[in-house]
Amino acid sequence: MDPVLKLKHTIDALFGVGISRHLPKQIEFFFSKRTGRIREVYHKQKLLCTLRIDGGLAITPYFAQILMKSKKFKENCIEIDNDSKPFVEEGRSVFCGHVVWCGKNIRIQSDVPVLYKNKVIAVGKAILSSEMMKEQTIGVAVKVRDSLKS
């Protein structure tokens, strides 16, 4: 299967139909020497994402900002308040009490871009679903994997 087509199908499956239209044109793939699978995807020498063994994507804040051009993609994001912004930029977890808004497509263990004033500052893995984040005021909502400062 064509690697670009495979990446587009994966993005559409994980984040919503039509979001892959915002994928940059000049992308570079790196494949595993042993298995032949797609390992990493780059655009202008910047890492966009890494494909996981389970079929998921580990996206970077740079790639999340590119995908933010799509209005549908914002339903996979959370918005945080001013108090937690410096900690999240350092790579610390996002707590439920600091979530100002969260999209309806967030599910447990899904990749979640963390926004501050519509700018991606980090990407992490959701610990709770969007409904649970709205209901709770204590506890970790997103475990940050990659932030702007790291």
UniProtKB/TrEMBL annotation:
<protein>
    <submittedName>
        <fullName>Queuine tRNA-ribosyltransferase</fullName>
    </submittedName>
</protein>
<dbReference type="InterPro" id="IPR038250">
    <property type="entry name" value="TGT_C2_sf"/>
</dbReference>
<dbReference type="Pfam" id="PF14810">
    <property type="entry name" value="TGT_C2"/>
</dbReference>
<dbReference type="InterPro" id="IPR015947">
    <property type="entry name" value="PUA-like_sf"/>
</dbReference>
<dbReference type="InterPro" id="IPR004521">
    <property type="entry name" value="Uncharacterised_CHP00451"/>
</dbReference>
<dbReference type="GO" id="GO:0003723">
    <property type="term" value="F:RNA binding"/>
</dbReference>
<feature type="domain" description="PUA">
    <location>
        <begin position="76"/>
        <end position="149"/>
    </location>
</feature>
<dbReference type="Pfam" id="PF01472">
    <property type="entry name" value="PUA"/>
</dbReference>
<dbReference type="InterPro" id="IPR002478">
    <property type="entry name" value="PUA"/>
</dbReference>
<dbReference type="InterPro" id="IPR036974">
    <property type="entry name" value="PUA_sf"/>
</dbReference>
<dbReference type="GO" id="GO:0016740">
    <property type="term" value="F:transferase activity"/>
</dbReference>
<keyword id="KW-0808">Transferase</keyword>
<dbReference type="InterPro" id="IPR029402">
    <property type="entry name" value="TGT_C2"/>
</dbReference>
